[in-house]
Amino acid sequence: MNFVATGIGAGLVSALLTAVIVKATPLAAMLYLLAPIPVLIVSLGWDHRSGLVAALVGGLAIALFLSPLSGLGFAVITALPAWWLAYLALLGRPGADGTMEWYPVGRLLAWSAGTAALTIIAAGLISTGGDYAAFNQNAREVSEAFVNAQFTTTGPGALDAETREQLVGIFARLTPFLSAQGFTTVLALYLWAAARIVQASKRLPRPWPPVPELVMPRSAALILAGALVLAAFDGFPGALGMALSGAFLMAFSLQGLAAIHDRTRGKSGRSFLLSALYVLIFVTQGILMVALALFGIADSAFGLRRRFGTRPNPPPTLST
Predict the structure, then answer these.
(1) DSSP secondary structure of 258-302
(2) CA gap 288, 260 in Å, rounded
(3) Contact yes or no for 35/14 (Cβ under 8 A)
(4) Which secondary-structure segment (H or E) carries 247?
(5) How many CA atoms lie within 13 A of 120 on its CB side?
(6) Does residue 71 contact residue 102 with C-beta atoms inside 8 Å?
C-alpha cells in the first residue's frame, strides 16, 4: 500500500503548488507551473497508481478549499496528464531475447503533444461549460492583452483601429495553437526532469535512453496533417485542430533539435555550434523552430538518421 501513502503526499504537495496561484505573484506563478512534477515523480518512482491517488486527493483538497470546478480543473489539467505520460513511460514487454523493450521515448514525445492539445481544449470546455462563444471571448481577451503589450495605442507608431482588430482576431484564432505549443514543451521537459530525478534515486524501473536519439513515429506526421485540415473548421473542432497543429509542430521542432544534438556528438566545435543554434532560436523569437520542425518531420517520414547516420536500425517500438 506504499503507493497510497506516496500518492496522498504528492497530491497534497501538487494541490498546494496549484492553490498558491491565488496570490497572483511571480513566485506563485512559478510554483503553479511546477505542480505536475510531484505527480510525475511518484508515478515513475513508486507506481503509476500513485499518480491516480495524487489526482484524486489533490482534486478533493482544492475542491474543498477553493471550489469544485477548481478541483476538477486540477485533476484534468495538472494531475491526469502527468499520470498518463508516466504510465506510458513505464510500459514494457519482454523481447525475443528475453530483454525488456520499453516504450520508446519518441512515442512519449508524440503523446506529450497529443496530451497537451487535448488538455488545452479540456481546460476551455471546463472553464466555459462548453460554450464556444465564451471560449472565443476568453481567447480575444488574451490576444488583446498581447497586442496592447506589443503595440502602442498612441503616438506615431500606433496601429489604427482596423489593423488592431485584425491582429486581435488573428491571435485569438491562434490562442489554442500557441498555448498547445508551450504546454507541449512544458510536459516534455517535466517528464524528462522527473525521470532524471527518479533515476538518480535509483527508483526508475527502466533505463532512460539518450534524448538526442528520439524519433517520433510516422503516424505523428499524419496526425499533424489531419490537424491542419481540422483547423479550418469553426467551433471546438477547429480549436482542437489548432491545438493539435501547434502541439505536434512543437514536438517535431524538439525532434529536429534532438537530431542536431545527435548528429553533432563527437564533432569538433560541437559546443560552439549548439550555442549558436540556441542563440539564433532566441534572437529569431522561435522562427527557427519552423525549420527544425520541417527537419523533424523529414526525419520521421524518411528516416534521415537511419539512412545517413551511424544507427542503421530504428529503436524498438510498442503499439499504443
Answers:
(1) HHHHHHTTT-TTHHHHHHHHHHHHHHTTTTHHHHHHHHHHHHHHH
(2) 13
(3) yes
(4) helix 235-263
(5) 32
(6) no
Q: Where are the domains of the chain?
A: 1-90, 105-320
Task: Give the tens place of pLDDT for each residue, 233-266.
Answer: 988 999 999 999 999 999 999 999 988 888 888 7
Give the residues across from 94 on adjacent strands: 100
Question: What is the rounded CA–CA span in Å between residue 80 and residue 114?
Answer: 13
Q: Per-residue pLDDT tens for 184-228?
A: 999 999 999 999 999 988 888 888 888 788 889 999 999 999 999
- What per-residue string of b and e applies to 6-19 under the rule 16 or more CB within 10 Å gives b? bbbbbbebbbbbbb
Residue written as grid cell 471560449: 135
**Burial of 202 by CB count in 10 Å (0-12 exposed, 13-18 middle, 19+ buried)?**
exposed
**Sheet strands (E) in the chain:** 92-94, 100-102
